[in-house]
Amino acid sequence: MRHFKDKVAVITGGASGVGRAIGAQLAAEGAIVVLADIDQAKLDATAAEIAVEGATVVGLTVDVTKEASVEALAQQVYDRFGAAHLLFNNAGVGLGEARKAIWTLPVNDWRWGIDVNVMGVVHGIKAFVPRMIAGGEDGVVINTSSTNGGLRSLPNTPIYAATKAAVTSISEVLYQQLLKDGGRVKAAVLFPGPHTVNTSIMASRLVRPAEYAGTEPEEPVAYRTMQDLVKTTGLNLQLTEPEEVASFAIEGVRAGRFWLLPESEQGDAMIRQRTEGLLARTDPVSAW
Do residues 226 and 196 touch, judged by C-beta distance below 8 A? Predict the structure, then answer.
């Protein structure tokens, strides 16, 4: 997809962070942008902020953990605009799980992480892909994964890593199945980076729905912001801004790439190390 003018782009998790940045850049290119998120007031504010002169930017409430809610979103989009050409399954949460042993994590933490990060993608695919195929136009489904889990699982965030591993696998399967179906609609998987992305995902726990409340007393989390994570790890990590991720993602879609993975020495070394380990049947390399 070379041009985005008048294309309808739906972005879950669109009220902030990477989703907001993608919406802003697509609006500037003349796309019709639908921001979908759980907070209507925040959506309205974001839509007003990023709507350049003449652009169509709307905010629609969705709870990606609920199949019916995502189906209702798709119906609203098609009723209003008649198509969806770009679907960014981007909504995600952080769990505040860092530094906890995997066998101590509450089941509700797993359920919340999986329902948002994995089932949110599944619900988006189920609601939009049949409509996109039936429309007969070119389209792209972009699922947001992470190098953590999506390429190599870091031991300090077991739930998050597991969900992003699932997103990468789902995206690869979706790519193959869409190709077999005719290939007018394509799939891509986005790995935000190349460094830790400066978003508010660490604050997800503050808006955690009651149905996913933990059964154990709330414990202090290791990191509250991405800056906290960078300082606490002591790894002198850099931060990547959401706008950089959005630019890379959009250019990758324009070029027709599946792997939307920024180049970096650290990332390439990580991929090489895991691949060589698999081929040699060696034990996982410690990431502590």
Answer: yes
Selecting among 78, 160, 175, 223, the annotated active-site residue is: 160
Domains in the chain (CATH in brackets) are: 8-280 (3.40.50.720)
The runs of H, that is alpha helices, within the chain are 17-28, 40-50, 67-81, 107-117, 119-135, 147-150, 158-181, 226-233, 242-255, 265-280
User: Could you tell me the pLDDT band of residue 97, with boundaries at 50, 70 and 90?
Assistant: confident
Instruction: Read off the DSSP letter of residue 99.
Output: T
Q: pLDDT for 101-159, tens place per residue?
A: 899 999 999 999 999 999 999 999 999 999 999 999 999 999 999 998 999 888 888 99
| Maximum average pLDDT range among 27-31, 232-236, 260-264, 270-274 | 27-31
Rg (CA), the chain: 18
Distance CA 161, CA 171 (A): 15
Q: Is 160 tagged catalytic?
A: yes
What are residue 10's DSSP bridge partners?
A: 34, 87
| Residue 72 Cα distances to 18, 45, 149, 156, 242, angstroms | 23, 22, 30, 36, 28
Contacts of 190 (CB under 8 A, 6+ apart): 88, 90, 142, 143, 144, 145, 245, 249, 252, 260
pLDDT higher than 70, residue 222:
no
> How many residues does the structure list for the chain?
288
HSE, CB side, 13 Å, CA atoms: give it for residue 165: 10
Preceding omega of 194 cis (within 30 degrees of 0): yes
- Over residues 194-218, the pLDDT tens digits come to 777 776 655 565 567 778 876 554 5
For residue 175, give both structure tokens.
């790519």
